[in-house]
Amino acid sequence: MSPAPRIMAVQGAAMIVGAVLIILGVLGFVPGVTANLDQLDWVGQRSGALLFGTIAVCALLNVVHLVVGAAGFWFARTYAAARAYLLGGGLLYLGVWLYGALVDFGSDAHVIPLNTAANWLHFGLGTVMVLLAVTLAGQHDPTKRRPRLRRAASH
Length: 155
Known about the structure:
The chain is mostly helical. The protein has helices at 9-27, 59-75, 79-102, 116-135; strands at residues 34-35, 50-51, 55-56. Helix 2 packs antiparallel against helix 3 and helix 3 (79-102) runs antiparallel to helix 4.
């Protein structure tokens, strides 16, 4: 019988998603990668900064990506926590996507800058995270032992 892997696929996925979110958060503060960085507001819909020249960002949104990304590494320590991170984080990003899709751009109801590109980013992140949580759940949790079937002794 082969030894159990050190980490399960769901834990690896949580670390990869966390790394991607940290990279996005950092890039949101990098001149050249983020256009109009001089127009970056802390919060609010009027921030003129655009990650990759298309995705509306503000400092708060960049920090949220950094925090959620770091959480991916924290939760990746166990199978169950990694799965919960992917599912919960995915639902969070799908909620932000839904919020952006239902509230008109430029509305005072927006506390973060959202545009079509930001909505697609949040939809993609949320969908991928939920799919990873659901599909990688097919692996059994290595901390929970499955009972072994005993073979009947043949005489």
